[in-house]
Automatic annotation (TrEMBL):
PROSITE patterns: FAD_PCMH (PS51387). Keywords: FAD, Flavoprotein, Oxidoreductase. PANTHER family: XANTHINE DEHYDROGENASE SUBUNIT C-RELATED. GO terms for molecular function: FAD binding; oxidoreductase activity. It comes from the Bacteria. InterPro entries: CO_DH_flav_C, CO_DH_flav_C_dom_sf, Diverse_Substr_Oxidored, FAD-bd_PCMH, FAD-bd_PCMH-like_sf, FAD-bd_PCMH_sub1, FAD-bd_PCMH_sub2, Mopterin_DH_FAD-bd. The lineage of its organism: Bacteria, Bacillati, Actinomycetota, Actinomycetes, Pseudonocardiales. This is Carbon monoxide dehydrogenase. Residues 1-177 form the FAD-binding PCMH-type domain.
Amino acid sequence: MIRETLRYHRPDSLAEATALLAEHAGDIRVLGGGTSLIPCLTRGEIDVGHLLDLRGLGLGTIREVPDGAEIGAMVTYADVLASPVIAERVPLVARVARGITGGRQITQQGTPVGSACFNFPTTDAPGMFAALRARFQVAGPSGTRQVSAADFFVDAYRIGLEPGELVTGVLVPTTKRGGYCKIKHASGSWPIATAAAVFDGAADGRLRVALGAVQAVPLVVTADDPGQLAERVRDAIDAPWADVLAPADYRVRVAPVVARRAVDELLEVLP
Protein backbone atom coordinates (compact mmCIF):
# COMPACT_ATOMS: atom_id res chain seq x y z
CA MET A 1 0.00 0.00 0.00
CA ILE A 2 1.05 3.64 -0.44
CA ARG A 3 3.10 4.77 2.54
CA GLU A 4 1.54 7.41 4.83
CA THR A 5 4.65 9.61 4.75
CA LEU A 6 4.57 10.15 0.98
CA ARG A 7 5.30 13.80 0.16
CA TYR A 8 3.49 15.41 -2.79
CA HIS A 9 5.13 18.19 -4.81
CA ARG A 10 3.51 20.28 -7.56
CA PRO A 11 6.14 22.70 -8.87
CA ASP A 12 5.18 25.56 -11.18
CA SER A 13 8.51 25.84 -13.01
CA LEU A 14 10.97 23.46 -14.61
CA ALA A 15 13.76 24.88 -12.46
CA GLU A 16 11.85 23.97 -9.29
CA ALA A 17 10.96 20.55 -10.67
CA THR A 18 14.50 19.59 -11.61
CA ALA A 19 15.82 20.89 -8.29
CA LEU A 20 13.36 18.66 -6.43
CA LEU A 21 14.34 15.67 -8.55
CA ALA A 22 18.01 16.27 -7.85
CA GLU A 23 17.43 16.81 -4.13
CA HIS A 24 15.44 13.60 -3.70
CA ALA A 25 17.22 11.46 -6.29
CA GLY A 26 16.44 7.79 -5.76
CA ASP A 27 13.44 8.54 -3.55
CA ILE A 28 11.13 10.42 -5.92
CA ARG A 29 8.97 9.55 -8.92
CA VAL A 30 7.38 11.78 -11.55
CA LEU A 31 3.57 11.67 -11.75
CA GLY A 32 2.05 12.20 -15.18
CA GLY A 33 -1.25 10.48 -15.89
CA GLY A 34 -0.52 8.04 -13.07
CA THR A 35 -2.18 5.06 -14.72
CA SER A 36 0.90 2.88 -14.24
CA LEU A 37 2.62 4.56 -11.30
CA ILE A 38 -0.32 4.75 -8.88
CA PRO A 39 -1.24 1.03 -9.13
CA CYS A 40 2.43 0.13 -8.57
CA LEU A 41 2.56 2.36 -5.49
CA THR A 42 -0.67 0.85 -4.20
CA ARG A 43 0.66 -2.70 -4.63
CA GLY A 44 3.97 -1.79 -2.98
CA GLU A 45 5.97 -2.54 -6.15
CA ILE A 46 7.40 0.99 -6.03
CA ASP A 47 8.30 2.59 -2.71
CA VAL A 48 9.41 6.22 -2.69
CA GLY A 49 9.01 9.08 -0.28
CA HIS A 50 8.17 11.81 -2.81
CA LEU A 51 5.92 12.34 -5.84
CA LEU A 52 6.44 15.19 -8.31
CA ASP A 53 3.25 16.12 -10.19
CA LEU A 54 3.73 17.61 -13.68
CA ARG A 55 0.34 19.31 -13.77
CA GLY A 56 1.67 22.76 -12.88
CA LEU A 57 4.22 22.90 -15.71
CA GLY A 58 2.00 23.55 -18.72
CA LEU A 59 2.97 20.38 -20.57
CA GLY A 60 -0.49 19.45 -21.86
CA THR A 61 -0.33 20.82 -25.40
CA ILE A 62 0.19 19.45 -28.90
CA ARG A 63 1.98 21.82 -31.27
CA GLU A 64 2.75 21.72 -34.95
CA VAL A 65 6.48 22.20 -35.53
CA PRO A 66 8.34 22.56 -38.85
CA ASP A 67 9.29 18.89 -39.12
CA GLY A 68 6.39 17.23 -37.32
CA ALA A 69 4.51 17.49 -34.04
CA GLU A 70 5.45 18.17 -30.44
CA ILE A 71 3.47 16.19 -27.86
CA GLY A 72 3.67 17.46 -24.29
CA ALA A 73 4.30 15.12 -21.39
CA MET A 74 0.78 15.67 -20.00
CA VAL A 75 -1.08 15.17 -23.30
CA THR A 76 -3.58 12.34 -22.87
CA TYR A 77 -4.61 9.74 -25.41
CA ALA A 78 -7.94 11.58 -25.65
CA ASP A 79 -6.06 14.77 -26.54
CA VAL A 80 -4.21 12.85 -29.26
CA LEU A 81 -7.46 11.55 -30.72
CA ALA A 82 -8.95 15.06 -30.81
CA SER A 83 -5.91 16.74 -32.32
CA PRO A 84 -5.99 17.89 -35.99
CA VAL A 85 -2.19 18.25 -35.84
CA ILE A 86 -1.76 14.57 -35.00
CA ALA A 87 -4.31 13.56 -37.63
CA GLU A 88 -2.41 15.50 -40.29
CA ARG A 89 1.22 15.03 -39.28
CA VAL A 90 1.48 11.65 -37.49
CA PRO A 91 -1.79 9.68 -37.77
CA LEU A 92 -0.04 6.55 -36.51
CA VAL A 93 -0.08 8.07 -33.00
CA ALA A 94 -3.87 8.37 -33.17
CA ARG A 95 -4.11 4.88 -34.63
CA VAL A 96 -2.33 3.49 -31.57
CA ALA A 97 -4.32 5.67 -29.15
CA ARG A 98 -7.63 4.31 -30.45
CA GLY A 99 -6.76 0.80 -29.34
CA ILE A 100 -4.91 1.54 -26.12
CA THR A 101 -5.31 -1.12 -23.44
CA GLY A 102 -7.72 -0.10 -20.69
CA GLY A 103 -10.42 1.61 -22.71
CA ARG A 104 -11.95 4.98 -21.89
CA GLN A 105 -10.52 5.27 -18.38
CA ILE A 106 -6.96 5.04 -19.68
CA THR A 107 -7.74 7.11 -22.79
CA GLN A 108 -8.95 10.02 -20.66
CA GLN A 109 -6.19 9.88 -18.05
CA GLY A 110 -3.16 8.10 -19.47
CA THR A 111 -0.44 9.84 -21.45
CA PRO A 112 1.66 8.35 -24.27
CA VAL A 113 4.77 10.18 -23.07
CA GLY A 114 4.21 8.91 -19.53
CA SER A 115 3.83 5.37 -20.82
CA ALA A 116 7.12 5.69 -22.68
CA CYS A 117 8.82 7.03 -19.54
CA PHE A 118 7.51 4.18 -17.40
CA ASN A 119 8.81 1.81 -20.10
CA PHE A 120 6.84 -1.25 -19.09
CA PRO A 121 7.80 -3.59 -21.96
CA THR A 122 4.27 -4.77 -22.79
CA THR A 123 2.73 -1.40 -23.58
CA ASP A 124 2.00 0.34 -26.88
CA ALA A 125 3.91 3.62 -26.67
CA PRO A 126 7.60 2.53 -26.69
CA GLY A 127 7.38 0.60 -29.97
CA MET A 128 5.34 3.37 -31.62
CA PHE A 129 7.87 6.06 -30.69
CA ALA A 130 10.77 3.85 -31.77
CA ALA A 131 9.22 3.31 -35.19
CA LEU A 132 8.66 7.05 -35.62
CA ARG A 133 12.25 7.99 -34.65
CA ALA A 134 10.88 10.18 -31.87
CA ARG A 135 13.15 12.56 -29.94
CA PHE A 136 12.39 13.01 -26.26
CA GLN A 137 12.75 16.50 -24.86
CA VAL A 138 14.52 16.45 -21.53
CA ALA A 139 15.01 19.18 -18.93
CA GLY A 140 17.53 18.98 -16.10
CA PRO A 141 19.82 20.99 -13.83
CA SER A 142 22.20 21.62 -16.74
CA GLY A 143 19.52 22.76 -19.19
CA THR A 144 17.60 21.00 -21.94
CA ARG A 145 18.53 18.30 -24.43
CA GLN A 146 16.98 15.79 -26.79
CA VAL A 147 17.31 12.02 -26.57
CA SER A 148 16.58 9.75 -29.53
CA ALA A 149 14.21 6.83 -29.00
CA ALA A 150 17.13 4.49 -29.67
CA ASP A 151 18.98 5.91 -26.65
CA PHE A 152 15.92 6.58 -24.50
CA PHE A 153 14.71 3.00 -23.98
CA VAL A 154 17.55 1.43 -21.99
CA ASP A 155 15.95 -1.63 -20.39
CA ALA A 156 12.67 -2.72 -18.88
CA TYR A 157 11.47 0.16 -16.64
CA ARG A 158 14.70 2.09 -17.37
CA ILE A 159 15.11 5.16 -19.57
CA GLY A 160 18.09 7.29 -20.52
CA LEU A 161 17.80 10.12 -18.00
CA GLU A 162 20.41 11.59 -15.67
CA PRO A 163 19.69 12.50 -12.01
CA GLY A 164 17.48 15.58 -11.80
CA GLU A 165 16.13 15.22 -15.34
CA LEU A 166 12.54 14.85 -16.51
CA VAL A 167 10.85 14.47 -19.87
CA THR A 168 8.80 17.50 -20.94
CA GLY A 169 7.56 16.12 -24.24
CA VAL A 170 8.43 14.34 -27.44
CA LEU A 171 9.09 15.49 -31.01
CA VAL A 172 7.69 13.19 -33.67
CA PRO A 173 8.73 13.72 -37.31
CA THR A 174 5.99 14.06 -39.89
CA THR A 175 5.03 10.52 -40.89
CA LYS A 176 1.78 10.49 -42.81
CA ARG A 177 1.59 6.73 -43.39
CA GLY A 178 1.78 3.96 -40.84
CA GLY A 179 0.46 0.57 -39.86
CA TYR A 180 -0.06 -1.01 -36.46
CA CYS A 181 -0.90 -4.42 -35.06
CA LYS A 182 -0.86 -6.04 -31.65
CA ILE A 183 -1.76 -9.38 -30.14
CA LYS A 184 -3.32 -9.62 -26.69
CA HIS A 185 -5.61 -11.94 -24.77
CA ALA A 186 -8.53 -9.51 -24.42
CA SER A 187 -9.39 -5.83 -24.74
CA GLY A 188 -8.21 -5.16 -21.18
CA SER A 189 -5.05 -7.24 -21.43
CA TRP A 190 -1.52 -5.96 -21.90
CA PRO A 191 -0.10 -6.68 -25.36
CA ILE A 192 1.85 -9.86 -26.00
CA ALA A 193 3.45 -8.35 -29.09
CA THR A 194 3.06 -5.10 -31.02
CA ALA A 195 4.39 -3.84 -34.33
CA ALA A 196 4.44 -0.31 -35.74
CA ALA A 197 5.36 0.00 -39.42
CA VAL A 198 6.43 3.08 -41.40
CA PHE A 199 8.54 3.81 -44.44
CA ASP A 200 12.23 4.15 -43.59
CA GLY A 201 12.96 7.16 -45.78
CA ALA A 202 10.85 9.30 -48.06
CA ALA A 203 12.05 8.07 -51.44
CA ASP A 204 13.00 4.41 -51.58
CA GLY A 205 10.01 2.77 -49.84
CA ARG A 206 12.19 0.77 -47.45
CA LEU A 207 10.20 -0.62 -44.53
CA ARG A 208 10.89 0.13 -40.88
CA VAL A 209 9.12 -1.94 -38.24
CA ALA A 210 9.43 -1.54 -34.47
CA LEU A 211 8.39 -4.52 -32.37
CA GLY A 212 7.17 -3.91 -28.84
CA ALA A 213 6.61 -6.37 -25.97
CA VAL A 214 8.85 -8.89 -27.73
CA GLN A 215 12.00 -7.84 -25.85
CA ALA A 216 12.67 -5.56 -22.90
CA VAL A 217 12.99 -2.57 -25.24
CA PRO A 218 11.60 -1.94 -28.72
CA LEU A 219 13.29 -3.90 -31.49
CA VAL A 220 13.62 -2.14 -34.86
CA VAL A 221 14.06 -4.07 -38.11
CA THR A 222 14.21 -2.84 -41.70
CA ALA A 223 13.46 -4.58 -44.98
CA ASP A 224 13.30 -3.73 -48.66
CA ASP A 225 10.07 -5.68 -49.14
CA PRO A 226 7.56 -7.56 -46.97
CA GLY A 227 8.92 -10.93 -48.02
CA GLN A 228 12.12 -10.27 -46.04
CA LEU A 229 10.37 -9.44 -42.79
CA ALA A 230 10.00 -12.86 -41.18
CA GLU A 231 13.68 -13.71 -41.51
CA ARG A 232 14.79 -10.24 -40.41
CA VAL A 233 12.58 -10.39 -37.32
CA ARG A 234 13.69 -13.89 -36.31
CA ASP A 235 17.36 -12.96 -36.75
CA ALA A 236 16.98 -9.78 -34.70
CA ILE A 237 15.37 -11.31 -31.60
CA ASP A 238 18.10 -12.34 -29.17
CA ALA A 239 16.52 -11.83 -25.72
CA PRO A 240 12.77 -12.43 -25.94
CA TRP A 241 10.58 -11.17 -23.12
CA ALA A 242 8.67 -13.63 -20.94
CA ASP A 243 5.96 -12.92 -18.37
CA VAL A 244 2.62 -14.26 -17.16
CA LEU A 245 0.99 -13.32 -20.47
CA ALA A 246 3.21 -15.42 -22.71
CA PRO A 247 6.49 -17.35 -22.64
CA ALA A 248 9.48 -16.18 -24.63
CA ASP A 249 9.20 -18.84 -27.32
CA TYR A 250 5.61 -17.83 -28.10
CA ARG A 251 6.66 -14.21 -28.57
CA VAL A 252 9.40 -15.35 -30.95
CA ARG A 253 6.82 -17.25 -33.02
CA VAL A 254 4.23 -14.46 -33.23
CA ALA A 255 6.63 -11.54 -33.77
CA PRO A 256 7.00 -12.08 -37.56
CA VAL A 257 3.22 -12.38 -37.89
CA VAL A 258 2.57 -9.11 -36.06
CA ALA A 259 5.26 -7.36 -38.09
CA ARG A 260 3.75 -8.51 -41.38
CA ARG A 261 0.23 -7.48 -40.36
CA ALA A 262 1.47 -3.99 -39.47
CA VAL A 263 3.20 -3.72 -42.86
CA ASP A 264 0.09 -4.97 -44.65
CA GLU A 265 -1.90 -2.20 -42.98
CA LEU A 266 0.77 0.35 -43.93
CA LEU A 267 0.56 -0.68 -47.58
CA GLU A 268 -3.23 -0.77 -47.61
CA VAL A 269 -3.54 2.86 -46.48
CA LEU A 270 -1.56 4.12 -49.47
CA PRO A 271 -3.59 6.57 -51.62
